[in-house]
Amino acid sequence: MQGRFITFEGMDGSGKTTQMRLLAERLRREGREVLETVEPGGTEIGSQIRRILLDSANQELRPTAELLLYFASRAQNVEQCIQPALSAGKIVLCDRFTDSTLAYQGYGRGLGEETVLTLDRIACRGLAPDLTLLVDVNVDTALGRAHTRNASLFSSEETRMDEQSLEFHRKVREAYLALARHYSSRFRIINGHGSPEQVAQRVWEAVAQHV
Q: CB 148: neighbour CB atoms within 10 A?
């Protein structure tokens, strides 16, 4: 039985990572086999690439190099983990996928949609999510949560993207909402405001018919 590929998207601080974890827990309670993964990351090689991408010390990382590193991590994850799990009939939950790259690098960095999609065809070999959950909050809320999270950690180097300009983050949110309209058959916009439990119920209502 072919598995199901569900991605979580949204700005840092939207709550998407928490919601993915809560959904995985609920699916496992119902007896489903679930693989949780993350972009960038998901594999040992991907985790090494993630450290380069998100390290706040790497402010000189150029947009094109950034884009290529994201897809290098993704290609490894697709071939090593995601595709085998789907072939085994598992539900794969992924924290970010190519939609993130379209929003952040394609639009936010100005590299363009076609450049991103060309690399996607090479790295992902036609793999696309069955369902994408966009956990949406306003920019001020997202950045406030992200900065609070970063400040609460004893040591965190994964702050480079959080430290981009307010205008950049506004572009990213606009891009996400445009993607949700364009790919309306697979996108579901989840209101990310409220308690984690309230948001989790909205997530489940969007997911239940697909699993």
A: 10
Of the candidate CATH numbers 3.90.550.10, 3.30.830.10, 3.30.565.10, 3.40.50.300, the domain formed by 4-210 belongs to 3.40.50.300
pLDDT in tens, 163-199: 778 899 999 999 999 999 999 999 999 999 999 999 9
Task: Report CA-CA distances (Å) from 18 to 28, 111, 156, 180.
Answer: 16, 30, 18, 21
* φ, ψ of residue 107 in degrees (nearest 5): -100, -50
Helix axis angle for 63-77 and 113-124, nearest 10°, is: 30
Residues 83/26, Cβ–Cβ less than 8 Å: no
Structure tokens at 134: 């966009």
Global pTM reads: 0.92
Parse the chain into domains and list their residue ranges: 4-210
Alpha carbons 193 and 81: distance in angstroms, whole number:
32
Greatest C-alpha distance within the chain: 46
Angle between the 44-54 and 63-77 helix axes, to the nearest 10 degrees? 160
Task: Give 45-70 pLDDT, tens digit per residue.
Answer: 999 999 999 998 999 999 999 999 99
Supply the pLDDT for residue 211. Answer: 86
Distance between CA atoms of 143 and 166, rounded to whole angstroms? Answer: 9
The tens digit of pLDDT for each residue in 25-41 reads 999 999 999 999 999 99
